[in-house]
Design a protein that fits this description.
By secondary structure, this protein is of the alpha+beta class. It contains 17 helices and 24 strands. A hairpin with a 2-residue loop joins β15 and β16. The longest helix is centred in the first third of the chain and has 23 residues.
Length: 604
């Protein structure tokens, strides 16, 4: 007989009755029923109920073994009495009567429960992540991650893509986030950077003649944590193709995403279309470049209504005169909502730093509400026409400069939608995945603080119109062949058709304030490769962590990562980052210049 197991903890059935078997696993639960001891033994496959019978010489020994200890048990399989059978367990018809037991790994008192959710906080869960990962939910999430990655690989290979690994130690490059730097012992005073993405390498692969590349790529960015962004590192399905247009990239990724979400989405459905929404339209209609299309509310521009001579709402008039705009959101069928519905939304707006959230409620053919008296009947009719409002509907307003108004209107759109109960016509759709492509991003934007031109998205993108656009259009009007794929309000990835012409790359970087020497220093390898014949190419890199987070219906991305850092970019389990020894620093020719600790004043 095998020293540890003849079967796993999910295998035993009625066919095994009277067989002598051996299984191993963790003690999930122990239950003492008046001298008969029951153990739910757990391994990665499932659970088996084991029994130490009354009068067994093993009883005293087993009583001392703590939960989460690893044991091996040998004994006979018996049929459970009818009333004790558990139809929810695959092994629920049988139980194992223990004749022999061996402790393989004794457990100390555990800091939180594994068999059930006892509300342990994230910090202690991350410190003892190996215990946290034993929990059923975490096992399910991490297995889902494995299955998604396996499926992604198969789907990419099925479309003729080849998987290559790109370097982890590379050169620093400005790609939108801070680099993690690694000192070089052999090159004193110089540093590698961990790649924020394999961007340059995958483009170089296209220039090397490999037509279709993909990789499950680790990426490293020294940026702050968010619910949908893990600090430090993340993984993406990185891909690049040669001789393609934007639509060619879409035609590759859409079936991959659709297939993954159909395979692992359970009973949730996928909306049939991956709609394409220009960036400016998305900011206007949804106040975001990553809209959640399950939210049925849309934003409209009603600046012209409040600019009318017969409208006397000075709070909006003054902003409009300074170039501001007024955005409106129609909330349908709210006539029967109590006053508290509107008061809560007003309080929400104040909590976001706004004076409030003004509205007009249309009842019996006329408007009511805090600002209705400033809007005469003719203006109200125009407002209803633009917003599509009818009796029983309310229209909420946001007034500010254009970008600020768009962002706040986007947040208000979400808050209003969230205020409705499930089933209301304006409530968020449930059980559905809605994808969209955001396209036609601006190539450049103006930094409001410095007044300098800079890239608004990916600096390696091809401008729409090529060199002619760079030379003859207002820079702020130039669009790029850039695109994002969004699902349920979460950006899964950015991508682009790349700039493969060195003269266009030099011109674009010059317009963004980078001189030729900076371009040579930072991107010389790729720029030189372009000079030896570069094909038109493009790609994208959907984030695996975010895909799994959506599929697992988890609000926090750390719930789908095996060993994540906490919000302060610390690994509490491995105690990283940690200090380096004096010997290590000397070997790397590094001296520390740490900020001085603040000395508390003893003055009264």
């Amino acid at each position: 007989m095998h020293p540890y197991r003849t079967h796993n903890c999910a295998e035993l059935r009625q066919d095994h009755i009277d067989d002598t078997v051996k299984i191993s696993g963790w003690i999930h639960r122990k239950r003492d029923h008046g001298g008969v001891l029951f153990i739910d033994l757990r391994d990665t496959h499932g659970l088996t109920q084991c029994v130490v019978d009354e009068g067994s010489p093993l009883l005293a020994e087993v009583e001392k073994i703590r939960p989460e200890s690893v044991i091996t048990v040998t004994g006979k399989v018996r049929l459970r009495p009818g009333e004790t059978q558990n139809a929810t367990m695959p092994t629920g018809e049988v139980e194992l009567y223990i004749d022999e037991i061996e402790v393989q790994g004794a457990a100390e008192v555990i800091p939180f429960q594994v068999a059930e959710d006892d509300g342990a906080g994230e910090e202690i869960r991350l410190k003892y992540r190996y215990l946290d990962l034993r929990r059923e939910k975490m096992q399910k999430n991490i297995r889902l991650r494995n299955d998604v990655i396996t499926s992604l690989r198969e789907r990419m290979k099925g479309q003729g893509f080849q998987e290559f690994q790109t370097p982890i130690l590379t050169a620093s490059s400005p790609e939108g986030a801070r680099d993690f730097l690694v000192p070089s012992r052999l090159n004193p005073g110089k540093f590698y950077a961990l790649p924020q993405a394999p961007q340059q390498f995958k483009q170089l692969l296209m220039m090397s003649g490999f037509d279709k590349y993909f990789q499950i790529a680790p990426c490293f960015r020294d940026e702050d944590s968010r619910a949908d962004r893990s600090p430090g590192e993340f993984y993406q399905l990185d891909m690049e193709m040669s001789f393609v247009t934007q639509d060619d990239v879409f035609n590759v990724i859409e079936p991959v995403m659709r297939g993954i979400f159909e395979e692992f989405g359970g009973d949730r459905t996928i909306h049939s279309d991956f709609v394409k929404i220009p960036y400016l339209e998305s900011m206007m209609k949804y106040g975001s470049d990553k809209p959640d299309l399950r939210n049925p509310l849309e934003i409209v521009d009603v600046t012209e209504v409040f600019a009318r001579d017969d409208v006397e709402f000075k709070a909006f008039k003054g902003t409009i005169e300074k170039g501001g705009v007024v955005r409106a959101i129609r909330a349908p069928n709210v006539g029967d909502q109590p006053r508290s519905f509107f008061d809560k939304l007003n309080s929400w707006a104040q909590g976001e730093g706004a004076p409030g959230l003004g509205y007009v409620l249309f009842k019996d053919g006329e408007g009511a509400g805090p600002i209705a008296k400033f809007i005469p009947a003719a203006a109200q009719e125009e407002l209803k026409k633009i917003s599509g409002a009818e009796d029983g509907d309310a229209v909420f307003f946001i007034c500010n400069q254009e970008l600020a108004a768009a962002k706040f209107a986007g947040a208000a759109r979400e808050a209003i939608c969230n205020a409705f109960p499930e089933g209301h016509v304006a409530a968020r759709e449930q059980g559905e995945f809605k994808f969209c492509w955001i396209v036609d991003f601006p190539m450049f934007e103006m930094d409001e603080e410095t007044g300098k031109m800079e890239f608004s998205h990916n600096p390696f993108s091809m401008p729409q119109g090529g060199m002619d656009a760079l030379e003859n259009q207002d820079p702020l009007d130039i669009l790029a062949w850039q695109y994002d794929i969004v699902c349920n309000g979460i950006e899964l990835s950015s991508g682009a058709i790349r700039n493969h012409k060195p003269e266009i790359m030099e011109k674009a970087f010059d317009m963004a304030g980078y001189d030729k020497q900076v371009l040579e220093d930072k991107f010389g390898g790729m720029l030189n490769a372009m000079k030896f014949g570069a094909p038109p190419h493009g790609g994208i890199a959907p984030g695996i962590d975010r895909i799994v987070m959506i599929l697992a219906d988890e609000p926090n991305i750390r719930e789908v990562i095996v060993f994540p850092m906490n919000g302060n970019a610390q690994d509490l389990m491995m105690k990283a980052p940690s200090t380096a020894s004096a010997e290590q620093l000397k070997e790397l020719n590094i001296k520390l210049d740490l900020p001085k600790a603040k000395v508390k004043s003893e003055a009264a």
